[in-house]
Structures are given as structure tokens and as C-alpha cells.
Write a structure and sequence with these properties.
Elements (H helix, E strand, L loop, with lengths): L1 H17 L3 H10 L8 H4 L2 E9 L4 E10 L2 E3 L4 E6 L2 E5 L20 H11 L10 E6 L2 E4 L9 E9 L6 E10 L6 E7 L5 E6 L1 E3 L34 E4 L13 E4 L30 E5 L18 E2 L13 H21 L24 E5 L8 E4 L8 E4 L1 E2 L7 E6 L6 E7 L1 E3 L9 E7 L21 H4 L3 E5 L5 H10 L4 E5 L10 E3 L7 E4 L1 H12 L5 E4 L11 E2 L4 H16 L16 H11 L54 H22 L11 H15 L6 H16 L4 H10 L41 E4 L6 E6 L4 E8 L5 E9 L2 E5 L6 E9 L2 E9 L1
Parallel strand pairs: 3-8, 13-16, 15-17, 17-19, 23-27, 24-25, 25-26, 26-28
Antiparallel strand pairs: 1-2, 2-3, 2-4, 4-5, 6-7, 7-8, 8-9, 9-10, 10-11, 12-18, 13-14, 18-19, 20-30, 21-22, 21-29, 22-28, 24-29, 31-32, 32-35, 33-34, 33-36, 36-37
Helix pairs in contact: 5-9, 9-10, 10-11, 11-12, 11-14, 12-13, 13-14
Length: 869
Amino acid sequence: MKKVLYLIIFFAVNISFAQDYSNLVKTYLQQNRSQYSLQQQDISDISIASQSYSKSLKAYNVYVEQRHQGIKLFNSVSPFTIKDGAVYSAKLSFTENVAAKVNGTSPSISAVNAISKAANWLGLQNPTNLNLIETVSDNSYIFSNGNISQENIPVELVYQKMDETGALKLAWDLSIYLLDSTHYYSVRIDALTGELLATDDWVVSCNFGEGSHSHTNTESILFSEANVNNSSRMLGDGSSYRVFPLPLIGPNDGPDQLVLDPSDPIASPFGWHDNDGVAGPEYTYSRGNNVIAQEDANGNNGVGDRAEGGPTLTFDFPFNLPQAPASFRDGAITNLFYMNNMMHDIMYQYGFDEESGNFQVNNYGNPGNGGDYVFADAQDGSGINNANFGTPPDGGAPRMQMYLWSAPGKVLGTLMNINGGPLAGEYYAIDSNFVGGTPLPTTAITEDLVLVVDDNAGSSTDPNDGCDNILNAAEINGKIAVARLGGCGNTFKIAQIQAAGAIAVIVVNNTPLDPTAMIGGGSSLDIPSIMIYQSDGEAIITALLNGDTVNATLRDDGTGNDPFQRDGDLDNVIIAHEYGHGISNRLTAGPANVGCLQNEEQMGEGWSDYFGMVLTIQSDDTENSPRGTGTYALGEGTAGKGLRNKPYSKDFAINDFTYDDIKSQVAPHGVGSVWATMLWDLTWDLIDEYGFDPDIYNGTGGNNIALQLVMDGLKLQPCNPGFVDGRDAILEADQLTNGGANRCIIWRAFAKRGLGVSALQGSTNSRFDGTEAFDVPVDCELGVSDNGLLENNFVVFPNPSNGELNIKSRYDVGNAKVSIFDMNGRKVFNQEIELHHIANINASSLNPGIYIIQIDGDNRSQTTKLIIN
């Protein structure tokens, strides 16, 4: 019976995929030809490059190419959205009046000669043993690698659009993957003259600094796709992995953990160590259907060491940080294997499946090209301070290269531990760097904490910064003192507190960013001092003001003076970022064409940063908390700005990027960071509306909604998109998926950053000709507040709920009253709460249904619909 069911499903899936929408597309183009200023001959020869069904959109994404006399126009691929048997939308990249713009239809140089020309233009050796392997169609061939490419070289006749004239030049389009993996060139060679017309690079590098490169050829270890039988997946394979599991950013966010069988049964139905579709693993090492992770310390792209889990698939390798990366190589490979598989499984839920071009050897009977799992190289020795991801079209295997990072100049360590109570745990801090001062000792200092109180006699207005005459010296004597950073010199502050008898000082940063090392002359300072995060410090100060006893231990545990290189394989945000390049390149204009994010205003780096951040949100994060990309690799805490010029935050005091800033930011990383800032704002606006759901697979929170909209927007946007294109695609995704329920939330989020209704994009091949605007549609103008928009004072989440509720306030309102009314207006719940930031209430006694919750406090009130399941 299982076999019959499987065959029915397989048949149905493939019938849906085989549905031909060519006539529907042609009819649409014919009816709308004048709207697009197209001639009849411009639409008479089209082809469908790829298509897929989107479950979230409940529509087909069909990607259509324009051709002239059977020769396609390069990057003319245009997304059509087909819903309920009709064209819902189309975003054309077609050229009008093609016949008048082409320079010929017959090449003067051969395909094999074009490869030699390309090698010469790229500074490569002349190809040798270049043999024709396959004739795909008229004017489309596959040649051997010629000893210049890791992969065989496909060559196809196309028309290349020349930006300056609009002319269409006949060209050979071919791709060469360099032997050292640094570049995967997509090249157009003039088919009449042999000149180089255009070069794109499918390898996206996210370097921060330069490193040497030296690679030799690599052998292919991909197997052909196997047939799938009717075996169903067993309940887990018993695999376990010691990793820094999501949502952890990396070692700077929490300790490593041993996780049990984290594979998703929908995305990876036979687990992470299968590729034949039969229950039971084929591999006991770090290899499976979605990725092979291996070390490449010598940088040769060969078959390196893999992490071996043995017959029980137990990948439990200690990290024992800090130490040299070579000492935890198996652990690094395991974390890299885990993160690649997690990216595969999570993004599968949001529409990056086989038919949409995801990365799998075996598609298990689903449409799309297989044979393309990720080659993930750990501790790659060909460079430093870098990471990259090369994405060929669907069916071509991508490669991720993760490098080591220079020993950071500023390293936070776990220098403080609170012993017991609600604040118990390790805390990141940075030691002071006073000239001649006393560093934190390696022997533990354990004592109660005392908050400094001064008389505010000077210019400082904070009684807890130690900048004025200290009033509580008797309490401080023999204790560890706590003081805010304040407005006086650090040397003066510490000397004052030392004179009061403190044995050590904890300084609380006055910004949400990483704490910094206090500097200055310190020859008179005989006690150690450290600085901690603002959020951690304020929690401690609140406890001390409440009269709580807080006991702490300070010591130099070595983590704050880490001389070792950082390993990018442990930075989950960087891994997600690199994998994200594969996602955005395969989803934009379809998986058959990965050259649509090469224009100046493209946002590829932004999507990748966003993926890394949205997957590492934790329940206690806030919208204004700073977040950065690559904080672990750079030796920063989780609030560091990372690799970008500004950390991500909704707070304009931390990140004030608007659309116009792409003119001053370097492309592509700076441009992408502006886009990611907008997506980050949108995500938190949706979290404010729907709450946060830690279930990243099947959750219903604002974070899940945002990620789905971003993924669907990638499918809907045109080739070579700009910011306005990306915004409009997300609005269209919300209309298709949610009936436009979030339309105004989306508009306000983008308008706040200058991408309002009146914003002008200009050419997407330039980042200097756009115009920002901050307006929203009239029906979305709900009022005025400090930032020009009306925002809720309180957020109730999760909603729907089982009755266990969180109430988050934008303001410290103190005493507040929560009332819940049924739909007949009867009060069924009432509770007084203390509402400083987040408070919890238990209304689980209520029957399932729809209610109204009213929150009143500090001259602020709000009424919100509440659903109890």
C-alpha cells in the first residue's frame, strides 16, 4: 500500500510540474503588448526556463526568457505569477524592437574558440584536452574542463545587451570555475570579434581583510542521483552533534551543546546521512544528501578529513575554547555540517525546495535538478578573514569556503560569574587597559556587589556613576563595587571607588553596544576593573536597588586574552550568510539563471545578513538591541557591529540608514546593509503585531511571517532588482499569502527608512540616481508620533495563545491594570501588574474564544483583540 501511495504522489507532482503555461504567457503578452511597448516579433519566440509551485503563495512562479530566432537574450528572464489559471502579475525584463538591435544570428568564431578567448581574457593558461562532451541543442554545448575549470564548460549562443547603446550583440555565454575556487566566472564573448563583453562572478566573497590563495584542482565526489524506493523514514537515526545550536550566534552567545537528531522529517525525510532514499544512513561521517563538510587546511579543494560519527552517528567532539582551531577541527566540521543542514531544512519550510532549486543530491522524486549538495570546506587554508559561496545554476554543486580569522584585537571574555539567584550565570566583560594599572587576576575574587552612591555635587547627574563624592564608602569597603560609566574620566572614577575600599570595580556600559577597555594612566590603581554590557549591568543595578544580595566572582579565565585565531565555522551568522547567497541567487528569476544579482543596486548581501540574524533571534531580544554580522569571528560580543559600518537596530540612534545612504555605502556589502536594515525593521514590526515564535520551522509569529514574505519576495521580484522592486515584491507576497493583511505595516517599515510611496529607484545599474521619500498610502496614515508614525504602546504575545501571555511595553509604565472582556462586554479577567518592559499573566482559565484585552498604565492605554485557543 505504501508503494501505491508513493507512486500516486510522485505522478501527481510531476504532472503539475509538466503543466505547460507557454500559451497562457503568450496570450498575456499579446493582450498587454502595447503596455510594455513590445513588437509582435519581441514576444513570438519565448521559452520557459523554469517553474515551480509556491505553497505559501498558492501560485506558480514561471520564469520566461525572450528569444530571437531561437537565441535567448541573456538575463531577459522574467517572473510570471500564475494563480487560478490566470496571470496574476508579470515583471518583464524583455527588450523592445529586438530585430532592429541585434547584430547578427550566425557566429564568426566557434564555441571552442570562445573558450580559449575567455581563458585569455581572464589571464588563464590555454585550455588543453578540450573535448566536446554533449550537444545540448542548436548552439548549446558542453565541453570538458580543459584543465582550467573544476567543472565541465557549458557554452551557449546568446544576445548580450550593451548598456550604453541598448544594442544586442551575439555572444557565446560560458562559465569557468577556477581551480582555486576563488571565482566562478560567467562570461560573454563576442561571437563575431572574440572580445570580452561581460563578466559576472557566481562566487560571492564576504571578506574582511586579505589572504593568500593557492589551490590545485579538485576531484568530483558527487554520485549520480539514485532511484527512490517506497521506504518511509524511521523515527530518528540516533545521530547527535556537539555544536553551537540555533538560535545561538556562536561561542560568544552561549556554550556548545549536544543535540539529538535535529533533522527535519519533511525537508530531510531520510535524515542527514542518506542519499539513496532508503531508510538507514549511507555515511557515518559528515556527508549526506544536503552537504558534505570536510576540512581543507591545505587549500587544495581535494578530499579532506571529515568528522566521523561511527555506527551510532555520535559527533561529540570537544571545543575546549579558547585554543588553536586545529585542535578542534572535528568539532568545526561538525558545526559546519550542522548549520548547512539546518539552513537546508529550515528554508525548505519557507519554499526553498527541490523545485525551487535547493541543494540536494537526490530530490527523492520531486521536480528540479539533483546532484547539487553543498561542498562545505572547513578551516580552508587558501585565505584568511573571509568566507565565500559559489552558486551555479540548478544541478551544479555549490561550494562554501570558511576561513580562519585573525586573532581579534578586542576580545570579550567570560570574566564574571554571578553565584546564585535569578541573575546567576556567566557574563561577558572586557578587562581594563590602564597604563600601569592592575589587571584582573587569574585567581578568583568572590564577594557581594555594592552599588556606588555619590552626592551629585559636580556636573554629573547620575548618583551611581562614582563621578562625585561617594556617600556609601562603608558599604563599599571590602566589596566589589558597581558603577555606571557616567561622565567622568575612568581613571578618576576607579581611584575614587578604590579610596572607598572596594576590592574590584564593575563598570556598566552606558550604550547598548559592546563594552570597551577603559584606558588612561593607572599607576595609582591597585584594584582590577572590568566593563560589562549595559543590559546586564542594568539588571544587576535594579536588583541591588531592590535590596537583593548579589554575589559575584571575577577572574581572568583566559577567554578575555584569547591569542588564537577565530574559526568562521563556529560563527553561525556567517555560515547562514554564505548559504543565503545560494538562496537569493537561485530564487531571483528562477534556479536556471543565477546571474540576476550582479547589478549595482542589488541587495544580495542584505538578504544574506538578514537570514543570519532572523534565525538567531532569541525570546529575550528586543527591537532596539544592536546586532551585527560576524561578531564572533571579529572577537566581539553579540551586540557588536560586526562587519558592517553600523549594527542592525530599529533605534535610529544606533542605525540611521535610509535609502539615500546606498549612495555613500560601498557596493555590494554597504548597499546590502541598508536593505537588511529595512528588513530587520519590518521583522520587528511584525513581531510587535503577532509576537515572537521560537519555532522557526512551523511557528506563526511575526518572525515567521517576515521570513516567509522575504522568501516569497525573492521569487516574485525581477532580474536585476533594486530596492523599490524588492519592496514591491514583498507587498505582492503579502497580498497573495495574507490577503494584504500586513500592507500598512510593510509600507510604514519601508517608508521609515526612505522607501515610501514616492521613492524613485532610477536605474538598478546605478546606486546614485534614486530618490528617497517617507510617505505612505493615505489609508495607512494612522496618526503621528515621534517617528512620524503611530505605534502601539503595548504588544501582547503570543496571540493566539493558550492563556499564558506576555505583555511588552515600549515604555516603563510601572503599575498597570490588565482587563479582559468577552465579546458580550463582560469583564472575565482582571490583574494588577508591574510593567517595566515585559510582564507575564496567566489567563489559562479562560475558555477558547475571542476576547478584548485592555491595558492601562501611566497615562497610556490600549485595547487589542485576543484569541485564546
